[in-house]
Amino acid sequence: MEVSLTYLADLPLYKDEKPFYALLRPTEAFLARPPGEDWVPEHPLSNLEFEVHHNIPVHNLRGQEETFSAQKNGFEVLCHMSSLWQVLNTPSAIEAYKREVDELLYTKFNAVHTFTFEARRRRNEQFFSRVYSLGDPMLVEGPATGVHTDFTVDSGPRTIDTYLAEHEKLLYLGQPGYRFRIVNTWRSLVPVLEDNPLAVCDSRSVDMADLVPADRIIPTRAGEVYYGRYNPSQKWYWLDKMTPEEPYMMIMYDSHGRSDDARFCLHVSFQNSKAPSDAAQRSSIETRSIVITRLDS
């Protein structure tokens, strides 16, 4: 199937100015503005510009799921039944789901420690509110914009240091022989996903020059992601009619590994021209987890 994907525009600006976007606390002036009035911030909150590339082949993983692995390709399709995917409507259910993902990744990687530090629900609809709390466990966002990864070689270690407890840092970060990964899962919350599915890119087809570091600034800290530049050599995949028992697992950062191991996974949602008009509205949940293994794992 050929689809349209949104990439970071290849602007001369980015040779002199690092891409960035900021999600900041609303100012008093913003909150005091009349309802419906456009808001122009005193300083720009983003310099991101995107461009759509058409007729990009996206290959169906259905029937060949077992030939792709997170270590080799940056992603894989898991077979995992969640006991919670239909009841993620309370903060306690979200926390229980994160612990469920901990157990899944602990077994999958033969890990010594896992910690799922974030879960994000998304739904394919237009959201009009410009004021929301990133710390709200019940926050629902729209599909992420632009081909990207969630962490970089710089922000991965900073994130691990942020979320590990002090005794865990002493136990693992302060000792040799451990490998640290940040791993995402992405699960459909509708029985059959056809509307706005997620495409994943084989990391072996991505040149490091395709990855553009961008600052992501929130009230509590500054992070960094990679946005993708278009390259016709990239190989994209998707899973047709994905079910909740078939979550993606994606590598976002790896502290070690052989030279041919995947260190990241570009991904982005896309409009599925094959989706029927009555397809269930895309709803999904993604998690971000620290996975610590022995260095030889």
Automatic annotation (TrEMBL):
What InterPro entries does the entry give?
A: AsaB-like (IPR044053)
Originating gene: aclN_0
PANTHER family linked: BLL6449 PROTEIN (PTHR34598), OXIDOREDUCTASE AN1597 (PTHR34598:SF3)
Coiled-coil region(s): none
| Species per Swiss-Prot/TrEMBL record | Lachnellula suecica
Q: Which family does it belong to?
A: Belongs to the asaB hydroxylase/desaturase family.
According to the record, the segments passing through the membrane are none
Q: What is this protein called?
A: Aspirochlorine biosynthesis protein N
For molecular function, the Gene Ontology terms on record are: oxidoreductase activity
